[in-house]
Amino acid sequence: MDSSPYLYLIKNSLLITTHKIIGLWTNHIYSLSTNGSLWTLPVEFLCYIFCFIAYKIKIINKKNFKYTFILFLGCLLFQKILYMYFPTLESVLPLFFLFYMGMITYIYFDKIPLKNRYACILFLITIISLFLNIFLYVKIITIPYLCLWLSFECKKVFTKENILKLSYEIYLWGFLIQQIIYELVPSNNPYLNFSLSIIPTLIMAYILNKITNKLTRK
């Protein structure tokens, strides 16, 4: 009996990232991973540990958290040098930077001005940074702000309070669902693959959302 599926399940459950189930989807365009979205889970877990430690030592507050920005800025500016000596950080730090920005947002949200003109300016800066090859540094500021703007400033467009927030669940299921769809309907047309994948992805995201909410509800 092939143990690959069981090892895949066990290792990923223990946050030991394992991408491939031997013999599965060998003829796919992208056959290197069963569910590529899982690679971020160990990094996210480390971020939550950092968040817990920061909370326990009373850093997560408006008075103290600002002092961590110096360390953050240093890592951001010299990240390429850090990657030379610690190659593993190249897959960890970019996600940690964004997680850190999320913490800043949570703590200082009332100090962040969400304005349409600021969003437009930062969007243009983001596009320009791609051509100037500085997106690595710029995205840490612009992408979180644009996400906040889309979530809060654009809420007038989406007025229903019961709209579910399924972005993370969609992220977890999207890759796997598209691989399954390609197995059932082999096609090199990305638009067809997307069209066939979107509904089952939303369904599975909804189910996962309901399960996690039930398990975490006090």
How would you describe this protein?
With 218 residues, the protein is an all-alpha fold. It folds into 3 domains: 1-34, no CATH class; 40-156, no CATH class; 164-218, no CATH class. It contains 9 helices and no strands. It has helices at residues 4-13, 41-56, 69-77, 79-85, 89-108, 116-132, 135-152, 167-184, 190-216. The relative contact order is 0.08.
Question: Any chance you could write out the topology, listing elements then pairs?
Answer:
Blueprint: H1 4-13, H2 41-56, H3 69-77, H4 79-85, H5 89-108, H6 116-132, H7 135-152, H8 167-184, H9 190-216
Helix pairs in contact: 2-5, 5-7, 6-7, 8-9
- Could you tell me the strand content as a percent range? under 5%
Categorize the overall geometry: globular
Please tell me the total number of domains: 3
Which assembly state applies to the chains in this document? single chain
Terminal residue distance: 42 Å
The secondary structure category is mainly alpha
What's the count of strands?
Answer: 0
Concise overview:
With 218 residues, the protein is mainly α. The chain has 3 domains: 1-34, no CATH class; 40-156, no CATH class; 164-218, no CATH class.
